[in-house]
């Protein structure tokens, strides 16, 4: 608890998803304006928790990621020249204005076509990892730093966009990098369905994944679940995910699959047996391919599918979180 904490916050700034989140037809609509006000309250609480705490805010925008705010970039001159307000603490006002102005600037630069593009979540996550690696490791040839002076880093992702299957490999590489750097990745799913990749990121790095069921209590979730650093969460009743979806995306079609076939040489994942691995060019025996094709589950018949014998549609079971490992391997 005596160690300073660094928080790298990644904001999902997808205009199309935030438009859907604010619709009145939702059970608990949450507009982007309300979301941002709660986020600013949360980051100010983090900075106020300890004088040595640091903060970096990254924005995941359509097709690009940017650094919106960093404690290092705020100079004493900026604090001195900021507009005084008797109703607000000047350092908090500087954080609020810097983040809000940077977000407005980036959103104003987007056109209608770019607003519908997928967000660059992987780019924001990679920049957060690089930033943490720079502040936690002294430069080569410099004097070794006092271990007590080093900060305890963590990453928090506020997500509203669905999974992008083509980003499976970059996301997994980022997870492995976070594991090596001992960085916990927390995820708060603010809107939309559960994300498979971010569930795995939180589970593998020792972070928390929370799906926001009551979005009118968003600030309470942030303060109670994500404000305490990982070092003191063991003594707190912080909610965590009870099940993790371990499904992966195939390397051939970039689809999330339940049953996959893994190359025994390079561990590439495919949705169907292939004669030649497209990654390492390894050739597999014909008998092995025949045996694997014969063991594949048969497609569902109409009687067991979504329609009954008289043509009346049957309700589809709700898609729950599964814990299905990849079941086959090409040998």
UniProtKB/TrEMBL annotation:
<comment type="subunit">
    <text>Component of the 7-subunit TFIIH core complex composed of XPB/SSL2, XPD/RAD3, SSL1, TFB1, TFB2, TFB4 and TFB5, which is active in NER. The core complex associates with the 3-subunit CTD-kinase module TFIIK composed of CCL1, KIN28 and TFB3 to form the 10-subunit holoenzyme (holo-TFIIH) active in transcription.</text>
</comment>
<feature type="compositionally biased region" description="Polar residues">
    <location>
        <begin position="303"/>
        <end position="313"/>
    </location>
</feature>
<keyword id="KW-0479">Metal-binding</keyword>
<dbReference type="GO" id="GO:0000439">
    <property type="term" value="C:transcription factor TFIIH core complex"/>
</dbReference>
<keyword id="KW-0227">DNA damage</keyword>
<keyword id="KW-0862">Zinc</keyword>
<feature type="compositionally biased region" description="Polar residues">
    <location>
        <begin position="321"/>
        <end position="331"/>
    </location>
</feature>
<keyword id="KW-0863">Zinc-finger</keyword>
<keyword id="KW-0234">DNA repair</keyword>
<dbReference type="GO" id="GO:0005675">
    <property type="term" value="C:transcription factor TFIIH holo complex"/>
</dbReference>
<keyword id="KW-0804">Transcription</keyword>
<comment type="similarity">
    <text>Belongs to the TFB4 family.</text>
</comment>
<keyword id="KW-0805">Transcription regulation</keyword>
<comment type="function">
    <text>Component of the general transcription and DNA repair factor IIH (TFIIH) core complex, which is involved in general and transcription-coupled nucleotide excision repair (NER) of damaged DNA and, when complexed to TFIIK, in RNA transcription by RNA polymerase II. In NER, TFIIH acts by opening DNA around the lesion to allow the excision of the damaged oligonucleotide and its replacement by a new DNA fragment. In transcription, TFIIH has an essential role in transcription initiation.</text>
</comment>
<dbReference type="Pfam" id="PF03850">
    <property type="entry name" value="Tfb4"/>
</dbReference>
<dbReference type="InterPro" id="IPR004600">
    <property type="entry name" value="TFIIH_Tfb4/GTF2H3"/>
</dbReference>
<keyword id="KW-0539">Nucleus</keyword>
<dbReference type="InterPro" id="IPR036465">
    <property type="entry name" value="vWFA_dom_sf"/>
</dbReference>
<protein>
    <recommendedName>
        <fullName>General transcription and DNA repair factor IIH subunit TFB4</fullName>
    </recommendedName>
</protein>
<dbReference type="GO" id="GO:0008270">
    <property type="term" value="F:zinc ion binding"/>
</dbReference>
<dbReference type="GO" id="GO:0006289">
    <property type="term" value="P:nucleotide-excision repair"/>
</dbReference>
<feature type="region of interest" description="Disordered">
    <location>
        <begin position="291"/>
        <end position="331"/>
    </location>
</feature>
<dbReference type="GO" id="GO:0006355">
    <property type="term" value="P:regulation of DNA-templated transcription"/>
</dbReference>
